[in-house]
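RECORD TYPE: inverse folding
INPUT: structure tokens
STRUCTURE:
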């Protein structure tokens, strides 16, 4: 009879403990980021309103155009940030809800496996002990041997099922983790890529402001006012 080493039980215990730590740390971390992004979004909206008011009172056409473009770019960034928040809430935080129940089932299977293996080990030890005795009734040994064989068969069945369940859980866990990480990275990539695109246009508009030309235009307007 071949028993699996205790290293397997230790590995699985450590593995499930690590997953629990993930649930207890990563999810609150994402929730904190969602809250932070929402706060930034709210502040961005206020800044957009200020920029729009500034543009209404700006007398320099080029500066007014820059203010309008910046307000528009920030408004788009705010919309993209809202999309990121939805991505985090749906595809990351929402995914965490599927893990606890699956993890509980695996832990229950682990406890059942340990219980069955312990019973099989005890049965086998009992048979060995009886075999080492000089005077043992054949009927007693036969009953113990039959019990041992039954426990070994049950152990093999439980072990095979447990291995399959563990592999399936791990594949589901990794698929879920993969989807969450991709959602996180893609959400941020989209936000920053679109923000950079919009701000690049704003940068060009701001850079195009010709201060000297605007100064000359203002000077001419002031002289025209004097002549009137």
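DESIGNED SEQUENCE:
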């Amino acid at each position: 009879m071949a028993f699996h080493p205790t290293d397997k039980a230790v590995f699985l215990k450590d593995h499930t403990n690590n997953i629990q730590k993930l649930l207890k740390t990563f999810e609150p971390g994402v929730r904190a980021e969602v809250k932070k992004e929402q706060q930034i979004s709210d502040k961005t909206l206020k800044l957009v309103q200020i920029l729009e008011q500034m543009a209404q009172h700006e007398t320099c056409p080029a500066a007014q155009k820059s203010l309008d473009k910046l307000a528009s770019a920030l408004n788009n960034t705010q919309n993209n940030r809202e999309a990121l928040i939805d991505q985090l809430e749906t595809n990351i935080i929402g995914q965490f809800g599927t893990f606890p129940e699956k993890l509980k089932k695996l832990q229950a299977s682990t406890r059942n496996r340990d219980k069955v293996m312990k019973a099989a080990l005890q049965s086998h030890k009992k048979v060995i002990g009886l075999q080492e005795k000089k005077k043992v009734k054949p009927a007693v040994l036969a009953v113990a041997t039959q019990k041992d064989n039954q426990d070994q068969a049950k152990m093999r069945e439980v072990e095979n099922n447990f291995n399959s369940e563990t592999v399936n859980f791990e594949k589901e866990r990794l698929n879920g983790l993969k989807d969450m990480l991709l959602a996180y990275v893609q959400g941020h990539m989209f936000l920053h890529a679109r923000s950079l695109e919009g701000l690049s246009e704003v940068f060009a508009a701001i850079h195009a402001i010709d201060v000297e030309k605007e100064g000359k235009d203002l000077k001419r307007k002031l002289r025209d006012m004097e002549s009137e």
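NOTES: The mean pLDDT is 87.
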